[in-house]
Design brief:
The chain is α/β, with parallel strands linked by helices and 156 residues long. The protein has helices at 2-11, 26-30, 39-44, 79-89, 104-109, 127-140; strands at residues 15-19, 55-56, 62-65, 92-96, 116-121, 145-150. The protein has a four-stranded mixed beta sheet, with helices on both faces. Strands 5-6 form a two-stranded parallel sheet. The longest helix is centred in the C-terminal third of the chain and has 14 residues, at 127-140. The protein is globular, with a radius of gyration of 15 Å.
C-alpha cells in the first residue's frame, strides 16, 4: 500500500489499486471490504460502472477496488475491456494479485500492463520462487518485469 500511496503523491493523480484475487482477497480483507462489489463483479457485468465499486482510502490520491463478491471463474476475455474502462477514469491502475503461481488472473493481465513488479521478502522468498515467477511471466508475454526487494519484520 505504501508504494501505491507514494505513486499517488508523486503523480498528483488518483491511482486505482485493484485486488484481482477473488479466491483469496487478502487486500480486500485488510481494507475491510469483504462482501463489497468489486473486480470480479465488474468483469461479469460490463454494464456496471467501475466507479460504482470503488472505495476511498486514507491515502491521498488512492482509491481501492475490492476483489468482489463473485468467487467463481473470472472471464479472462473481459480483462482488456475492464482495463480500458478503468483507465478511462483513473490515469494509473495498480493490480494486486498475490502470488503469481496462485492466481491465473496475474498471468492473463501481465501482457496487458506496462510493468509487472514481483515482490521478494527478505529471508522468506526463495530464489527458486523468483525464478519460477520470472519463467511464468516470460511465458505469459509480460514485456517488462521488475523486482522489488523488501525487508521482513524479522530483519527490521
Amino acid at each position: 500500500m505504501a508504494l501505491v500511496k507514494s505513486l499517488g503523491e508523486d503523480l498528483k493523480q488518483t491511482v486505482l489499486l485493484v485486488d484481482i484475487a477473488p479466491l483469496n482477497p487478502e487486500l480486500t480483507g485488510l481494507l475491510g471490504c469483504d462482501g463489497c462489489l468489486g473486480f470480479s463483479d465488474l468483469l461479469l457485468d460490463e454494464n456496471l460502472a467501475v466507479e460504482s465499486a470503488v472505495m476511498p482510502t486514507s491515502g491521498e490520491n488512492v482509491s481501492f477496488l475490492p476483489a468482489g463478491r463473485e468467487t467463481g471463474g473470472v472471464p479472462m476475455q473481459a480483462l482488456s475491456r475492464f482495463l480500458e474502462r478503468a483507465l478511462a477514469t483513473f490515469p494509473c491502475v495498480v493490480f494486486y494479485g498475490g502470488a503469481i503461481q496462485d492466481n491465473p488472473v496475474n498471468l492473463a493481465l501481465a501482457p496487458l500492463t506496462g510493468l509487472v513488479l514481483v515482490f521478494a521478502v527478505d529471508h522468506q522468498t526463495r530464489k527458486k520462487e523468483i525464478e519460477k515467477a520470472q519463467q511464468m511471466l516470460r511465458f505469459s508475454g509480460a514485456e517488462r518485469v521488475g523486482l522489488v526487494l523488501t525487508a521482513s519484520e524479522a530483519t527490521r
